[in-house]
Amino acid sequence: MRIDRTHRSWFIGSVVALGVATAIYVPYAMRTPGPSGSSAIGLIYGSVGFGFMIFAGLLGLRKKFPVWRIGRAQTWMRAHLWLGFLSYPLILLHGAFHFGGPLTRVMMWIFTVVFGSGILGAAIQHFMPRMHTTQLPMETIYEQIDHVRDQLATEAGRLVDSACDALDGELSRASVGQLAAAASAGTDWDVTVADGLGFNEPASRQLRDFFLHQTLPYLEQAGARGMALADSMRAHRMFQQLRILLPASLHSTIADIETICEEKRQLDQQRKYHLVLHGWLLVHIPLSYAVLLLGAVHAVMALRY
Amino acid sequence: MQRIRTTKERARRIDLMYFARPHWLRQWRFWLSCAIPLLALGWLFTMHAQGGQRAFSSGPLSRSHAVFTRQCELCHLRQAGYFQSVADKACLSCHDAPPHQASQAFTPACSSCHVEHKGALLLTTTADVVCTPCHADLHSSNANLQIARAIGRFDGDHPEFSASREGVRDIGGIKLNHSLHMQSLLGLNHTRVQLACDDCHRGAGGDRESWPYAGVQSRAGSAAPDAATVRLSHGTAYMAPPRFVENCAGCHLLDFDKRFAQEQVPHDKPEIVHAFLEKRFSEYIAAHPGEIHEAIRFDRQIPERLAVVRVARDAREWVGFRVEETEDLLWRKTCKECHTLLGGTGALPEIAKSNITTRWMPHAEFSHDSHRMMTCESCHTKATSSHETADILLPGIKTCRGCHRAQGPAKEFAEGRCFECHEYHNWKNEQRVKGKYDLRQLRGESGAGMPSR
């Protein structure tokens, strides 16, 4: 979610709330020998802070039931962001900046990680979607990446097959495009398309070799880290070399394969971005549940003693 | 040739059943969301099984109570129902806490000043804010209140020490010129003497070294602690009041007659001095009866006060003459060197009380021992220049503030909070606490139970 002008009222509200909480805390801490969570003011900070934490945790439930008419999803998200942000300083004021005993210490460290991951997540969600749009014009739905990658491999194979068949003299497998190329070359229908393209067995072998040893493994493998075609600069040089080696009539096929490789590269990049964009939730959400659970135990036991 | 993709081809790119396949990130999120809270609960149960309620402690206990960390119920007494709060009676079952003032308007709860679960601190290191709510603007029904009514932080609103305020004079009855005594003096046998502060002033309880200027009879003696003014815990805290036999007799001789070459009158009341003189002269004349009728001429008489030469008729009269002459010299010169002599009711004068102040700050504690690394003059700056007995040589609050600040050791200063000098509880009224627990109860052993409190 982008943090834009629509967050202004939440931002102002949060700053004011934090200011009020601090303004109350400072004289209280100066008047009290040992400000603690068990004092009346400490309990208020604790209750409000824990209330905000619970509310922030309810976002998961709200997402499970998107049809519930309990406020817009965007409003929930903003509330999650800003109330979750406020909950941390309030809990710090509750504990008078002490992490306390074993339970509260563990809880506060977990909460610190949750808070930190939340801030990181908000920053990522603010900046990365724009990077995504500008850098990955060929992006697809994340879940479709493997499916699209298979299709790209198939498409590249089909392109290479048709070009090589033509070069090998197999008219029956020549594509419409190749036939058109042959026609534009001024050949008649009684001569083979291969003649029109220029019969060239070594070129066919070279193209097929390049496809089998470089292109196909790259397209079939997700991520393809360390492979030559995974690096756009190296890939560009390789395709340039291929253009020199192969006849000009095949350059359009080479350009298509190069485009397919570029698309595969963007899909790999999209996978990485997606991991960054959503991976922090692997830390944020499970630890949030843990801190809510421990917080509930702490509330019950602290009130007892 | 540009890749040409028809709409149909594009549509075929989408696998329509993709949502039915679980996404690995979501799966991981789900399982971690189950596992981590369970792990946290497991840790909590393990802690509970190993250390009882310790897991729920709000922080480490103070140094003195740390040994009872697992026995929460020693302090957290079971109240009605579910709650277990800390009550004063839990504290009073081990500690006596005499009230601050007999007429105090209210008694704060122990825990309001001695805050627990704040780490390995001393519980006596209470914050200033527990004192200043009352003492910053003190309202008392006592019209003769001896302390200031507005006292704030030591390095802020704390008033000047009462003894160091402008116009306050020492009411002591012993005449002493500090400046003179700190100069090079003529001592016994025409030797030069340079006194140092600790030749006369030493801690009341701790010093066992002999006094360099003590009288012959007490030269090997020691300064005995004055139980009335010194608490046992402050053995060397306060300076013992100087005593003649230990600090003065070495130079200020009390010899009284050349017939008794080295002998001196006792440093005591006039009655005792008088009895001593009568006894010594009676003994002398009994041993030397031939001197009864000798006319005695005085050497070096003052012209205005020429004594009449008297001849005694018998031994009794001779003793009377000698005692009279000796006492005249003693009362007029020797004793008056330091003491103020009053008229008295009979023939003998009355010596004004010495009134040496032993505690200049009766509402505060001070330890000279803690300051032993400093020279005396660094604080008692007026000691070498004071000529008047009435000068008070106590350093002012400014001197103390040079090192002691309310921020204390955390800011590289000496402790400056209220408790450093003042005690809240009036320990003069301390009473012995009778123990209620046995070792098993204190160690929290199973089945030990708890005594009723």
Write structural notes for this entry.
The complex is a heterodimer of chains A (305) and B (453). Chain A is mostly helical and 305 residues long. Chain A has two domains: 5-137 and 279-304, no CATH class; 142-277, no CATH class. Helix content of chain A is 75%, strand content 0%. Chain A is built from eleven helices and no strands. In chain A, helix 5 (145-168) runs antiparallel to helix 10 (251-279) and helix 9 runs antiparallel to helix 10. Mean pLDDT of chain A is 87; it is low at 185-196. The relative contact order of chain B is 0.12. In chain B, helix 8 (270-287) crosses helix 9 (315-334). The termini of chain B are far apart. Chain B has helices at residues 7-12, 24-51, 88-92, 110-113, 132-135, 178-181, 244-248, 270-287, 315-334, 376-379, 397-401, 439-442, and strands at 76-78, 84-86, 184-186, 192-194, 341-342, 350-351, 404-405, 414-415. Chain B has a two-stranded antiparallel ribbon. A two-stranded antiparallel sheet of chain B has the order 3-4. A two-stranded antiparallel sheet of chain B has the order 5-6. With 453 residues, chain B is mainly α. At the A-B interface, helix 4, helix 5, helix 10 and helix 11 of A face helix 2 of B.
As a percent range, the share of helical residues of chain A equals over 70%
Name the beta content range of chain B. under 5%
Rg of chain B, Å, rounded: 39 Å
Low-pLDDT stretches of chain B:
219-234
Strand content of chain A: under 5%
Mean pLDDT of chain A: 87
Strand order in space, largest sheet of chain B: 1-2
Question: How is the topology of this model organized?
Answer:
The complex is a heterodimer of chains A (305) and B (453).
Chain A lengths: L7 H24 L8 H25 L8 H22 L7 H34 L9 H24 L7 H9 L8 H5 L3 H20 L11 H14 L5 H29 L1 H24 L1
Helix pairs in contact in A: 1-3, 2-3, 2-11, 3-4, 4-10, 4-11, 5-8, 5-10, 9-10
Chain B lengths: L6 H6 L11 H28 L24 E3 L5 E3 L1 H5 L17 H4 L18 H4 L42 H4 L2 E3 L5 E3 L49 H5 L21 H18 L27 H20 L6 E2 L7 E2 L24 H4 L17 H5 L2 E2 L8 E2 L23 H4 L11
Helix pairs in contact in B: 8-9
